[in-house]
């Protein structure tokens, strides 16, 4: 019999990892990867198909009850991820503070790989606040994008460190069920944080590339807390 494990509920969190819907730079990069260097793809928005993906996922999470269970949504502060976060989890009535939808919090640590490519550069926070009044931007320290560099691309090691930092932050939050709306490579590196505890086949399946608007659910466990409760 394969090994099975029991953990107390208080030592677990349910995390729903969601990649943004199809964005303009995704389409253009399919034909020419050099398109990712084009200034006209600055902070690339969702395509019409991307918006349709978001609408379809909204229907699914409403039907399966996820929309009511999620206590917090964390999103990358780029246009395509915030369009996805609000479209899937936001207030349908478009009236701030008049919905039972979960709060949405923008965090820099959840953004796409930084540097060189214009699609991964963000706008000023004040522009986003006008577009997304229901999103909380209080955790973003700078009005302007001080992280993106035109000549330096963030390394995968740096993305991994960011993923670990984010997961540590997330674990300290009081919410037990959280949705994270981010970018494919960032979500993969978040999962790599825990991959050492899985067998190879599980790791391959869990950490494979995310499709646009794909949602993947994991349970993370604080084994230290489990050990302390067993004593």
TrEMBL record:
State any GO CC term.
Answer: cytoplasm
Tell me one GO molecular function of this protein: phosphatase activity
InterPro entries tied to this protein:
His_Pase_superF_clade-1 (IPR013078), His_PPase_superfam (IPR029033), PG/BPGM_mutase_AS (IPR001345), PGM_Phosphatase (IPR050275)
The superkingdom of the source organism is Eukaryota
The similarity comment for this entry is:
Belongs to the phosphoglycerate mutase family.
Protein name, per record: Phosphoglycerate mutase-like protein
